[in-house]
Amino acid sequence: MRKRLIFMLATLCFVGPGVLLSFERTQAVDTSGVSVGRAALQAGTPSPLPGTSTPIPTRPPTSTPGPTHTPQPTATGSGAVSGVRPTPIQGPPPGLGGGNVPSGSVLIDPLVGKLFVTAGFPGVATGSDNQGFYQYAKNRKAEATLQAVWYIQVQQSGYYDVYAYVPSNPNATHTAQYHVFQNDTLGPSIVVDQGLSPAQWVNLGSYYFVNAAIDAQSVTLNNQTAEADSSSTVLFSTVFVVFKP
Fold this sequence. Notes:
CATH superfamily of the largest domain: Galactose-binding domain-like
Structural class: alpha+beta
CATH architecture of the largest domain: Sandwich
Largest sheet: 6 strands, antiparallel
Distance between the termini: 148 Å
CATH class of the largest domain: Mainly Beta
Radius of gyration: 47 Å
Number of domains: 2
CATH topology of the largest domain: Jelly Rolls
Shape: globular
Number of strands: 14
Strand content: 25-35%
Number of helices: 1
């Protein structure tokens, strides 16, 4: 019994200092970690973990600019629509004033033949002046609901002057929009004041037309104007295509 007690005391003498030394080292590590953590918190920046890199801040994406506004064409004159204004021709074009009609010229009457067609709502009505019968339709401002087409069929290719007859009507529109379809291309709007051109021929310009190209060349006029809906009348009458030899 005495020998066992002496052996235990001897073991404690050898082992005790090692245990105490290990405990002190552990306390030193923990204290160091707490110190580092406090320093980092006081600085406001967390310390990276050992073996890891500091993350690189990501730059926020820049915004993509939107499409720019495309300006719309301006109106031509007060209360008018954009387009080209032709010079009114006083009296009939060459050949319709008692002289000879130039060879190769074409007269397209809405009431004769099949070279004039209309499509849309509510359709056209028939009126008359001292020159004969014509057709007309009520106007629309926001968009066209009816269109008339004079198909041009010439016997020989070449340049032609295009005339449109404007009947006499007290309620005629001031902003009729003619277009000439030539070589599969629709030309710009040609604005005609039908109210200021009663019983007159209006020159729509000179164009090159091709023989046997009926579907690719024409004169068109719709019922869209600058006036309020149903406040004016769009007039459809004869188109005369005069050959220029």
